[in-house]
Amino acid sequence: MRIENLAHLLQGQLLNTPSIRSIEGWSATIDEVRRGDLFFASTPALIPQAIQKGAYAIVFAGEGAMEDPEIAWIRVDSISKAAQRLLRFLIVSHSTTPILLDPITFDLAQEYLDDPKIAWSTGDPLADLAYFRSNPPQLLAFWTGSYFQELQLDPALIPSPSYQILQRYPLETSLLVEGHYHERLPIAPLFEEELVKLWGLIHHHQLRYSWSAPPKSHFSPIFFTPRGRIVPFGKSSKVLIVEPDLSLAQRARTYLEQAVPWAKRGYWSVQKLAGFQEVPIEGVVEMLYNSPFHYTLYVGATLETIQPSLPQREPTLL
Question: CA-CA distance, 19 to 64, in Å (whole number)?
């Protein structure tokens, strides 16, 4: 891309008349800078390194001295906004299809889809630009929020598939989708709406998928024996369900009350929350040993944060 066109696209000010006329790529991290790149200098201290590595253009905000007049210096009001403008241009010019998902469907899709055709937005335009350095994705998935709105993209419509829920288990769902039977998928019917959206995405874009394990992002079950040993999925009547999103606490509680009304249920949280007992992460194991519950919902924690507190002799469930 020619330097003049680039400065216009970024809505920046070209401060000099460089001998360099065009760039060959772009980078936002110093380790990835290649000769001929445009470098987004989010930290001015990295500019000398970028020049040494062969950057042809520097995009920066604020004041700064032009250390090498041979390369292009483009000043912008905001590095993030400039990166958003380039990202939008690349999405459109490469005919990448933007997909907009609610946050839960996004998390589940990222876990269960295994297809190079789709990439996952990080929520950071500087990081998302890396997808377009080589082999741009056919699809780029975003979650709802201001970031996607600021990109001013039109999301692709995802048709709803023909489906029928055949059996609902507390932590599994059997369903018929477009004439294909899927038995006991390891996702609770709590996320039935999101699961149907995910199948719509899979079928419409013919994406590869795998349902080999329960989700790690939401409503994640860990089964324990009465002695506290972790066992594989479904091999015990004592289960801890970890949900990191506090905003889902009441929805998850209501689901358990309806799905397992016969069971003894506990509701714990890492912080004060109405209707939940406050339990710090380091106290979870002891509480499990002493609790009579079949199902314990623990909100505000993740599998990663809770794992150090769990028994050491743990199988590959996590």
Answer: 19
